[in-house]
Amino acid sequence: MDAARTVADPEPPSIDALISMSAADMVKVDALIREHMDSPVPVIPALADHLIAGSAKRLRPLLTVAAARLAGARNEACLKLAAAVEFIHTATLLHDDVVDSSQLRRGRVAAHLIWGAPSSVLVGDFLFARAFELMVAAESMPALEILARASRVIAEGEVLQLTRSHDMDLSQELYLEIIRAKTAELFAAAAEAGAVSAGASPDKQAALRKYGQDLGVAFQLVDDALDYSGEAGTLGKNAGDDFREGKATLPLLLAVRRTGQAERAFWDRTVDRREQEPADLDRARELMRQTGALQATLDLAGRYAQSAKAALAVFGADPWRGPLEDLADFAVARHA
Amino acid sequence: MDAARTVADPEPPSIDALISMSAADMVKVDALIREHMDSPVPVIPALADHLIAGSAKRLRPLLTVAAARLAGARNEACLKLAAAVEFIHTATLLHDDVVDSSQLRRGRVAAHLIWGAPSSVLVGDFLFARAFELMVAAESMPALEILARASRVIAEGEVLQLTRSHDMDLSQELYLEIIRAKTAELFAAAAEAGAVSAGASPDKQAALRKYGQDLGVAFQLVDDALDYSGEAGTLGKNAGDDFREGKATLPLLLAVRRTGQAERAFWDRTVDRREQEPADLDRARELMRQTGALQATLDLAGRYAQSAKAALAVFGADPWRGPLEDLADFAVARHA
């Protein structure tokens, strides 16, 4: 990372400019999403719509569109790739919720609780396949390569997380490796695919990939902090889920390390053995505040956001640069 | 279909010639499969190997290779596509076994019972993504289009089966639509992709697609019959699984229709409500024999196999044609 500290912003960061500049493109992306989630098998569009309609921001396809425009795209080649990115994301959400037995997703009851886990698995497969059909229609072999690789890296990250998810002694390095794979890789690939579709030079492709990756890490770090500090209303999922599942995210790893032997019995019981009582989550939150574990997580997110912004320097004074910088600040400011 | 009856063969059909002609290619396909199922996350190759090592015949990638050679391929472009086809197939098996809570697969304990359903879902995703990475490496956009579409059609077929799987009044037409999607589509795409990679003319591509599709339907019809007539040893799964799960396959649909009101209470209890006693499977088998439901299923499989063979007429006296015809006969003769 280039920057070592978080720069305080006088005004709360906003993504309004980014949203308004990409609005015309995103209407078309949305139409592509609607069109391609259709199927003669009725449960498929019903289940897909439940999840896709719950997503107001469409952050990842927005990244593909904005990256393409920043890289100088004058045509609509990026739109199908953007829709494909949203389908890959939605497919992984459907499978994740089955894997984690989650209750809430995007502020709605998780799909597998309504249609059953089998339908969630199979509709995830449908959306994944549709993503590749859209990429074929976009006729860019390099973009296909980027997104096929990302899909594989995401699955590897998910499996790695699954096998190490209750390890309270997980190193910060391995934790970062997991979130780079399971979350940041799709941000990186979304931005890189946009750049590639615009015919950007290799250094600009690499810059947008780096921007996406660091933004994705910042985004996941803040998500992991919000699970201990946020409310279900703003999260779209239940606050405290990670704790209840004993998931080794950075706030927890830092709190465990910083409280040392004094609290080891508490963590062993609540995280390792997952024998929890109602007051345990509040106690965990309190320990995270006392030890600064939550703030340290957010500070790290801030440094990744700075690094993401720095990667855009290669683009000079392009009108799309500022709004993408704002997105990085916004990702971190969500905790406020 | 072109042929309306099954032609009796004086000798039992054998795929020995096909296997020996494709042996050198299949050694290379196997190496590609081994290489691409590797991952730094140890559970991935372990779980993938459990399933892939259990497959002795590699029927679908064999189809890609043989189709390419019949279509005149002189290079190795088909090998990566063949490995991709096996990965797509293995991914769907992993997900199917989670969806159906199956106990046995390819003669081994189903992977989800050893590594858990979450790992099976995610390793399936990994293999699916790897398939697309292999297709990108094969550098054929038309083959990518064929296999992306097939992946989507398979998922649609699986969902359709899931939602209609206990419907004893399912029409034969809808049953055939389901197996065309969930099974025959990958056979069709495997053969078509092989033809495309060989630069075959459109009529030869279409012929190989038709061969693969009818072979796939025959194959599934025989599988569905074997579930009532076979032994676990030759099936690689438990005989009677379909009955225990109340799956509306053709032998059952025909038996229900042909026994009429006399046995409606029996089918309602055992299939609809799945309240089964140990002797019920034998009674179902007996009713299938009495009504000819099992034989009618096999006869239909025979007609599809004839149709598959007829589709190859366009290739004249090519040395690969006879072995592929034998494969169609062999698919049906498995019940003997």
Characterise this structure:
Two copies of one chain form a homodimer. By secondary structure, chain A is mostly helical. Helix content of chain A is 72%, strand content 1%. Chain A contains 17 helices and two strands. In chain A, strands 1-2 form a two-stranded antiparallel ribbon. In chain A, a hairpin with a 2-residue loop joins strand 1 and strand 2. Chain A is globular, with a radius of gyration of 20 Å. The two termini of chain A are 23 Å apart. Residues 1-5 of chain A have low confidence and may be disordered. Chain A binds chain B through residues 39-44, 91-92, 95, 98-100, 117-119, 121-126, 128-130, 132-133, 135-136, 139, 141, 144-145, 148-149, 151-152, 154-156, 158-160, 162-163, and chain B through 39-44, 91-92, 95, 98-100, 117-119, 121-126, 128-130, 132-133, 135-136, 139, 141, 144-145, 148-149, 151-152, 154-156, 158-160, 162-163.
